[in-house]
Amino acid sequence: MERLPVRYRYDTLGGLIDLGPMATGATFGRSPVVRLTALCGAWELFEHMNRTWRIRPNDFDQFSNLLSFVTGGLDRPSLYRDESADISKCLLAVRVRRSSMQMDELDLAEQWFLTGDDDLTFQDARGNDSLQFHFSGMHIVPLPLFSHQFVSAIWSTARVTVNQLGPDRVISMHSERVDSLTDLLDRGGEKARAAERELTPMQFQHFNNWPGW
User: Fold this and answer.
1) What is the dihedral of CA 80, 118, 133, 152, to 10 degrees?
2) In the prediction, which pLDDT does 149 show?
3) Tell me: the pLDDT tens digits for 156-187?
4) What spatial distance separates the first Cα and last Cα of the chain, rounded to whole Å?
5) In the structure, what pLDDT confidence band is assigned to residue 29 with cuts at 50, 70 and 90?
6) Do residues 145 and 129 touch, judged by C-beta distance below 8 A?
7) Model pLDDT for residues 100-118, shown as the tens digit of each residue
8) Cα separation of 134 and 67, whole Å?
9) Domain boundaries in the chain?
10) Phi/psi of residue 2, each to 5°?
11) Which pLDDT does position 167 carry in this prediction?
């Protein structure tokens, strides 16, 4: 880590989407950046993958195979493999279902990601704010909303997208953003390095080095 430039030693962009360990579903509802980043990442990955999948309307065999592929882990051939990405997997599975069944109406979970409306969430048996994702027919998957899930899902989706497209292609596609992102990483890295010198290790664990736009 010490050999890396300061900009790469700290998770500056993670500070933008990490609302802390005590964040709840209601908190995320008030944070469109977190919700929309998760949703757009999954949707963009779907668009890229569907150029290969070419989902056919009402082809149940294809739908079943794709559902298994996008929700699986190391137990079977899968898109995310060992990545921790429950939220993105669910969003991708719902998008596959809607495409296969030619449904334009958004799933209720997708609507929450767009609006943050608390009425679209429910509390599970443990009192956690949760969403329901409709995978197929009566197959409904409940998912509690926790901060670490959003952070890991967003980064996992980014890694899978880069792996699928190749880093050079991704950099070329977003070349106009390189300077602004580099600036953010530089400022966030310096902010974190200064804080690491001044704070105790325990205090630094809770330090957010997001520098703002």
Assistant:
1) 10
2) 82
3) 999 999 999 999 999 999 999 999 999 999 99
4) 26
5) confident
6) yes
7) 999 999 999 999 999 999 8
8) 12
9) 1-80, 82-201
10) -65, -20
11) 94
- Look at the chain and count its residues: 213
CA distance 56 to 73: 24
What was the pLDDT predicted at 147?
79
pLDDT digits (tens, 9 = 90+) for 120-141: 999 888 888 899 999 877 678 8
Q: Take residue 45 and report the two structure tokens written for it.
A: 């990955």
Look up residue 44 and give its two tokens.
């963009």
Rounded to whole angstroms, how far apart are CA atoms 200 and 209?
15
- SS3 of the chain: CCCCCHHHCCCHHHHHHCCCCCCCHHHHHCCHHHHHHHHHHHHHHHHHHHHHHCCCCCCHHHHHHHHHHHHCCCCCCCCCCCCCCHHHHHHHHHHHHHHHCCCCCCCHHHHHHHHCCHHHCEECCCCCEEEEEEEECCEEEEEECCHHHHHHHHHHHHHHHHHHHCHHHHHHHCHHHHHHHHHHHHHHHHHHHHHHHHCCHHHHHCCCCCCCC
Backbone angles phi, psi at 84, to 5 degrees: -90, 105
Identity of the residue numbered 116 = G
How far apart (Å, rounded) are the C-alpha atoms in residues 18 and 24? 12
